[in-house]
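Worked example 2:
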Amino acid sequence: MAGYLAGRTEDGGLGWFALEGGGRVPAARPLRERFAGKPRLPLGLDAEALLFLRPFARRPRETRAAPSLSLVRSRFKKSFLHVNRPSAAPRSGAGLLAPHGWAGLALIAVAWPLNWGLPGLRTHLLFFPLWLGYALAVDALVLRRRGTSIFERSRRGFVKLFLLSAPAWWLFELINWRTQNWRYVGREQFTDLEYFLLASVAFSTVIPAVFASAELVRSFDWTERLKGGWRLRPTRGVLGGMAGIGAAMLALLLAWPTYFYPFVWGAAFFLMEPLAAALGRRTLLSRTARGDWRPVVCLALGGLLCGFFWELWNWRAFPKWTYDAPGVNFWHVFEMPLAGFIGYLPFALELHAFGSLFSRRPLPLRLGAEERKGAEERERASPS
């Protein structure tokens, strides 16, 4: 007898087989009957798996028949490996969150009460730690749910998002200089240089928070329904049409800001997205060309989620921002008119377009088809 092979018996159960040459002959007793009551082994293997592995570990390499070894490998993967090598999603073990997630929650637990409770100027110092905590905590939650996250994949990429974020938000501040839709209460307490430096540090948290929130939305199974939709390809006509729409929106909001100020949230996307696509960057259009709308929807909802917390934590802050939104200055949620929350949906797409245009390397996001490549890389890196 050359060895043993675990496999399915005629009644559908597990049986053990004697290997003779390239074939197999069922033995009289099934595995479960022979090893009934035996204790389970570490890593989820029981005595059945031990019988399966032990004979082959002892056999000299030169005596193994090639067909039998191939059959052994496939049977072992089907029977046992799917138990011991879970998919990327949930992290199990002692910790509910990765260490950077606990650090993020600690920052929120300290900065939030201080931001609402201290008298006088305080938010200029607490905004950054509060939103750094948000980005870290949400990223760790994504890691818990999906087995991968921006911070886990690339610390350097995570930090680069902060560097990209400040100039992105200053672009909207430049447009607001004309539209005057929001203003900062307490701005007069700082010199121009102090304001620029403190505001830049605060603005640096915008893109990391939105992108982490987008990956959190992506962690829910219902987003899988969005990968087989209408295909919007970045043809010359589509890119030219988008650029024309963006230019018209920008011209209207600059000429008549009282009436067309909502175009702030959209004009930048229609201008930057086709330019980034023309330069060969990985854009949202490269996903919609395959009918994959998951990145678009996840980003938009991630922006809306961040918008809720921006307005919540701004509510009792100082310095703080307030709004002037002609035509919709009613039904306020915190400081924001209810209709104003709609602007957070295209705002997140504009951030992605800005990052795609001004970053030479692809953004460290996994919201669509690029996940398959990442999963394959993790599969190759994991021990077999």
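The chain has two domains: 3-84, 99-381. The chain has 16 helices and seven strands.
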